[in-house]
Design brief:
This protein is mainly β. About 0% of the residues lie in helices and about 45% in strands. Strands 2, 4, 5, 6, 9, 10 and 11 form a 7-stranded mixed sheet that branches. Strands 1-3-8-7 form a 4-stranded antiparallel sheet, with no helix packed on it. It is built from no helices and 11 strands.
Length: about 130
């Protein structure tokens, strides 16, 4: 069983909303940071948002600030990414990953995914009319 499982992707019209979920089967959200990343065809993987253990700190890429919200429900072992006002350029495969507490926030010293060791299989988000 994969340690992380994403769900909630799909096809949505521009301006619409989706909520992605990242389930941690190992129940370690109290100890690990969780990051959301995305990769579109032909593009490098980029960081979208992250949340530190127990939700103490959150961080967002400039491209999604004000539109996306990350949150965690440790009782359900799940981290959510609420995505509002979606744009066609948000279309990508979205992955969640977990890393040590220092993996969030992203300091800029390393690439966003540098500290993340365990990854889910990804969920496709397509924003199109």
């Amino acid at each position: 069983q994969l340690p992380l499982v994403e769900s909630g992707g799909g096809l949505v019209q521009p301006g619409g909303s989706l909520r992605l979920a990242c389930f941690d089967s190992e129940s370690t959200l109290d100890y690990y940071s969780i990051g959301w990343f995305r990769q579109a065809p032909g593009n490098e993987r980029e960081g979208v948002s992250c949340i530190s253990p127990s939700g103490g700190t959150t961080h967002y890429a400039d491209s999604v600030k004000g539109r996306f919200t990350i949150s965690g429900d440790n009782a359900k072992n799940t981290v959510y990414l609420q995505m509002n006002s979606l744009k066609p350029e948000d279309s990508a495969v979205y992955y969640c990953a977990k890393g040590p507490p220092l993996a969030c926030p992203w300091s800029g010293e390393y690439k966003e995914d540098y500290w993340y060791d365990f990854w889910g299989q990804g969920t496709q988000v397509t924003v199109s009319s």
